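Narrative summary of target 7.
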Amino acid sequence: MENQITQTGIEKSLSIYFEALNKSSVEQAVGQYTGDGVFMPTGLPTATGTSALTTAYGNVFKAIQLNVAFKIEEIISLDSSVAFVRTQSNGTQLIHATGQKTEELNREFFLMKKDNGDWKIARYMFNQPR
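Modeled conformation, tokenized:
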């Protein structure tokens, strides 16, 4: 039962996060992180903490518009408050500077932590499988 509750909570948090990516909502994306959350995007500096996350996501959304769907590949609970999640996302990105639309395919790895009863992203990194 606890495992199902954990999975449901994590799925909810990540659904909100990916919705934020598609809406280019900095506030919603950053809101899915813990206060000391870390974002490690491919080819860009690591962002740590709410202020740096806000800047990083603001810069990402100024550069691109995402239209992606995600699939959870696995959730591994370490205990009742920490879990690893592996996902895959695919769709398109619109590059604002050029107007070019390109395919977007990523593998993502999340460390999730329970924060005030809600599952939040504590660490997140991704890469492209090609």
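The mean pLDDT is 95.
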